[in-house]
Specification:
The chain has 248 residues and is an alpha/beta fold. It is built from eleven helices and five strands, in the order βαβαββαααααβαααα. It comes from Peribacillus cavernae.
Length: 248
């Protein structure tokens, strides 16, 4: 199986963090803020406010942007992103919106049960609850799994997983030549029910409506495992030290 791109050059290449909502992306954005000159980081969707000169001086772009945003720039580029188990991401989406009055979905969900929310949202194939992660990586309005996989190999230095967060961050650190990292999870939705607490038919509906996302997730998981397995002995020792330092 092919591996992720993994050959980022930090000399003049634009790094794009495509932040899929509720995938631990806020934590990664904070890490990025500590790794780069803040004057050369821009947040999507501020692109229209910048001159061509400012765009070309940009070192990092992050935000809820899909694949394809690089077309606004003239320089070479590379993406990173995080995926999450689709059911976990959707449960987190609902409870985060429910408890966050400023969230754009709050007014809709505040008077809806989780099952009602799922049954309502998944009727529309354009919903962020239907194969949204595949839509992000493919850059297409209609989610395209094969295009997402192609983009992953051609244009993504790392596609991490929320469920393998430490491994994902370690590979980003290694491939992107980041300095030492100290992080804790941000924007976490606490005290929410687990999958096993939810009605079985609701979970089955989420899985059915997110078949492409599940296939993409499993594909990315295998790539991530392959990348970790391919590390040389020194890098594996470095990873163990990285994990040990995280637990202190």
């Amino acid at each position: 199986m092919k591996r992720m791109k993994g050959n980022y050059s930090n000399s003049g290449e634009l790094l794009i963090f495509s932040h899929i909502p509720k995938t631990a992306g806020t934590t990664i954005r904070r890490i990025i803020d500590n790794q780069y000159d803040k004057t050369r980081i821009i947040r999507f969707p501020q692109l229209d406010m910048l001159s061509a000169e400012q765009l070309n001086q940009t070192e990092v772009l992050y935000g809820h942007c899909r694949f394809g945003v690089h077309r606004h720039f003239d320089q070479s580029f590379s993406y990173i992103t995080m995926l999450r188990d689709p059911v976990e991401r959707i449960i987190s989406t609902y409870y985060f919106a429910l408890r966050s009055p400023k969230n754009r979905m709050h007014e809709k969900v505040k008077n809806m049960s989780f099952p009602d929310f799922i049954f309502d949202e998944t009727r529309d194939g354009r919903s962020p609850l239907v194969n949204h992660q595949t839509r992000f990586l493919s850059g297409e309005k209609i989610p395209d799994l094969e295009k997402a996989k192609e983009n992953m190999h051609e244009h993504y230095t790392v596609v991490g997983l929320t469920e393998m967060f430490d491994e994902s961050i370690f590979l980003m650190k290694k491939y992107l030549d980041w300095n030492e990292i100290d992080y804790s999870s941000s924007n976490v939705t606490n005290n929410r029910p687990k999958q096993n607490d939810m009605p079985k038919e609701v979970i089955e509906l989420i899985r059915e409506k997110n078949d492409l996302d599940y296939r993409l997730y499993e594909y990315a998981k295998q790539l991530l495992l392959d990348n970790m397995k391919a590390l040389d002995s020194a890098s594996k020792r470095e990873f163990r030290t990285f994990i040990n330092n995280r637990s202190i």
